[in-house]
Write a structure and sequence with these properties.
The structure holds 2 protein chains of 2 kinds.
Chain A: E1 5-7, E2 10-13, E3 19-24, E4 31-38, E5 42-50, E6 53-56, E7 65-71, E8 74-79, E9 88-95, E10 104-105, E11 109-113
Chain B: E1 3-7, E2 10-14, E3 19-26, E4 32-38, E5 44-50, E6 56-58, E7 64-68, E8 73-78, E9 87-94, E10 102-104, E11 108-113
Parallel strand pairs in B: 2-11
Antiparallel strand pairs in B: 1-3, 3-8, 4-5, 4-9, 6-7, 7-8, 9-10, 9-11
The chains are: A mainly beta, B mainly beta.
Chain lengths: 114, 114
């Protein structure tokens, strides 16, 4: 199993541009999570999906952020327009069940908005 | 609401010494508890998990943690530190039932001195 796959690993973009982060969860996992990690705020849950349906997006910072999961093997997190304060490492994680098994994390996307 | 507090943002030990990383949690129902490790430029990796079976949980790399309900604690220990244990460690709690959220602590960076 290749694990949770995120792309790109690094993204540098200019303020105002659209950014799309991608995630492929582990096959058979029915829950998918997007987290953001910064030095100041630590790990923040942005949104999670169960069986491709968004369950809780209360962590999404503002309307500039959106996430989709069109099928069980793919999810995107989009920022439009991007701002320098969006610079962070974005992680995707997947799991089975209701959280009792723990998560498998991807390697993350380091986003820098200049 | 669930929450996690990790005591000490940095812990430094000598190689071969005991490692003790402290975690206290708050949960309205019996929780699922986890420890994750993060090496530089990588995603989080599950070290061990407590899911209401044995209170002493053994994980990978020689780590273990003990669930103490009376103290609402889930401290992580390793008898003898190795240089390769230097990383950031996160305690996490999930209430599981009816929800999929896992809340992470702020993290403790472990330094191992030769």
């Amino acid at each position: 199993d290749a694990g949770v796959i995120q792309s790109p690993r690094h993204e540098v973009t200019e303020m105002g541009q659209e950014v799309t982060l991608r995630c492929k969860p582990i096959s058979g996992h029915n829950s998918l999570f997007w987290y953001r990690q910064t030095m100041m705020r630590g790990l923040e849950l942005l949104i999670y999906f169960n069986n491709n349906v968004p369950i809780d997006d209360s962590g999404m910072p503002e309307d500039r952020f959106s996430a989709k999961m069109p099928n069980a093997s793919f999810s995107t997190l989009k920022i439009q327009p991007s701002e320098p304060r969006d610079s962070a490492v974005y992680f995707c994680a997947s799991s089975t069940g209701e959280g009792q098994h723990g998560y498998t994390f991807g390697s993350g996307t380091r986003l820098t908005v200049v | 609401a669930q929450s996690v507090t990790q005591l000490g943002s940095h812990v430094s030990v000598s190689e071969g010494a005991l490692v003790l990383l402290r975690c206290n949690y708050s949960s309205s129902v019996p929780p699922y508890l986890f420890w994750y490790v993060q090496y530089p430029n990588q995603g989080l990796q599950l070290l061990l998990k407590y899911t209401s079976a044995a209170t002493l949980v053994k994980g990978i790399n020689g780590f273990e943690a003990e669930f103490k309900k009376s103290e609402t604690s889930f401290h992580l220990t390793k008898p003898s530190a190795h240089m390769s244990d230097a990383a950031e460690y996160f305690c996490a709690v999930s209430e599981g039932t009816g929800g999929f959220k896992t809340i992470f602590g702020a993290g403790t960076r472990l330094f191992v001195k030769a």
